[in-house]
C-alpha cells in the first residue's frame, strides 16, 4: 500500500515560490541580453489578409499562390486549400471525427497531415485533397515541414524528428537548445533558407533552428502582432508559418485568428 503523501509546510511552499521567481528573473535578463546582441529580431507587418476565425490552425503551407491549412479539434478537423488574398476556402476534406488535425507539409504532389494523439499521418493529393494513404507513428504529432529531403516533425517537446517522406520512418532527431537551454513546446514548423523555423506554443515567438545541430540561430519576437481582445480565447495562439521561397514572402497566423499576416523580419 503506498504511503500517504506528507503535507507540504508553508515554509516549503514559500521556498518553491522563491525558486520559481528567481528562474523567472534570470529568464528576463537573458531575454534582454538577446535583444541587445541582435539575436532577437522583430517584425513589420507588410499586409493583412482575411483568415477564417473558426479555423483552429495547426499547419500552414504556401503553394504557388495558394495556402494549404490543417485545422484541429475532434469532429471539425480538416485539410483545406485557400485563396491567399481572400481567405476563401477552395477545397476541403474533413477528417473522421476521432482525428485531431495537426502539422501539414507538402512533398511533391502529396500533402501529409499529422494527427495530435492518434498516431496517424494522412496523405492527400495536393490538387484535389483526396485521401491517398496513411502512415503510423509513435507519440504526439504537432508540427510538420519538408526540407526537400526529409520531413521535419515536432511533438511539443524540444526535439525535432526527421523522417523519410516515403516511409515516414525516423531518420534522426535533434534537441533544440538556445545557448544550452532546451527550447520546448516547438509547434508549427517551416523550412526557410535551410533553417527550420518553429513557433513556440502559447508564445508569440519564432525560433530559427540549425537543423544539423538543433542550436537556435535566433528568435523573432512577434509580440503584439494580434490584438487578442478581439478573440478572448486561451486557444487563440500564434500557430502557422508559411514561406514562399520564390518571393521570400513570410506569412503567419494563429488558431481562430481572423487575420493572416505577411511579415518582414527586421533587426
Ligand atoms: Ca508551416
Describe the protein's architecture and organization.
The chain is mostly beta strands and 267 residues long. The chain has a single domain, classed as Neuraminidase (6 Propeller), CATH 2.120.10.30. It is 10% helix and 47% strand. It has 1 helix and 22 strands. The strands form 5 sheets. The chain has an 8-stranded mixed sheet. Strands 2-3-4-5 form a 4-stranded antiparallel sheet, with no helix packed on it. Strand 14 and strand 15 form a beta hairpin. It starts with 9 loop residues before the first helix and ends with a strand. The N terminus is likely disordered. Calcium ion binds next to strand 2, strand 16 and strand 20.
Tags for this entry?
267 residues; mainly beta; Neuraminidase; 8-stranded mixed beta sheet; 4-stranded antiparallel beta sheet; 47% strand; globular; disordered N terminus; binds calcium ion
Query: Domains counted in the coordinates: how many?
Result: 1
CATH topology assignment: Neuraminidase
What is the CA–CA distance across the termini? 60 Å
Structural class: mainly beta
CATH superfamily: TolB, C-terminal domain
Helix content: 10-25%
Shape: globular
The CATH C-level class name: Mainly Beta
How are the strands of the largest sheet arranged?
16-17-18-19-1-22-21-20
Radius of gyration equals 19 Å
* List of distinct ligands in this structure: calcium ion
Brief overview, please?
With 267 residues, the protein is mainly beta. The chain is built from one helix and 22 strands. Strands 16-17-18-19-1-22-21-20 form an eight-stranded mixed beta sheet.
Amino acid at each position: 500500500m503506498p504511503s500517504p503523501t506528507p503535507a507540504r509546510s508553508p515554509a516549503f511552499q514559500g521556498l518553491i515560490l522563491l525558486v520559481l521567481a528567481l528562474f523567472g528573473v534570470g529568464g528576463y535578463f537573458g531575454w534582454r541580453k538577446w535583444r541587445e546582441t541582435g539575436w532577437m529580431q522583430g517584425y513589420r507587418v507588410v499586409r493583412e489578409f482575411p483568415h477564417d476565425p473558426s479555423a483552429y490552425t495547426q499547419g500552414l503551407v504556401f503553394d504557388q499562390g495558394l495556402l494549404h491549412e490543417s485545422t484541429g479539434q475532434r469532429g471539425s478537423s480538416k485539410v483545406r486549400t485557400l485563396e491567399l488574398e481572400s481567405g476563401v476556402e477552395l477545397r476541403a476534406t474533413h477528417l473522421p471525427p476521432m482525428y485531431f488535425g495537426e502539422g501539414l507539409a507538402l512533398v511533391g504532389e502529396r500533402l501529409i497531415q499529422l494527427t495530435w494523439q492518434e498516431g496517424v499521418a494522412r496523405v492527400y493529393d495536393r490538387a484535389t485533397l483526396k485521401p491517398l494513404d496513411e502512415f503510423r507513428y509513435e507519440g504526439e504529432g504537432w508540427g510538420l515541414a519538408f526540407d526537400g529531403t526529409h520531413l521535419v516533425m515536432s511533438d511539443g517537446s524540444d526535439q525535432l524528428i526527421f523522417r523519410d517522406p516515403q516511409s515516414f520512418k525516423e531518420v534522426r532527431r535533434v534537441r533544440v537548445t538556445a545557448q544550452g537551454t532546451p527550447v520546448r513546446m516547438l509547434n508549427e514548423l517551416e523550412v526557410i533558407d535551410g533553417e527550420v523555423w518553429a513557433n513556440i506554443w502559447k508564445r508569440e515567438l519564432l525560433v530559427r533552428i540549425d537543423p544539423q545541430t538543433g542550436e537556435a540561430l535566433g528568435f523573432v519576437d512577434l509580440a503584439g502582432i494580434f490584438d487578442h481582445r478581439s478573440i478572448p480565447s486561451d486557444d487563440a495562439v500564434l500557430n502557422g508559418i508559411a514561406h514562399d521561397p520564390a518571393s521570400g514572402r513570410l506569412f503567419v497566423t494563429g488558431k481562430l485568428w481572423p487575420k493572416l499576416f505577411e511579415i518582414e523580419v527586421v533587426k
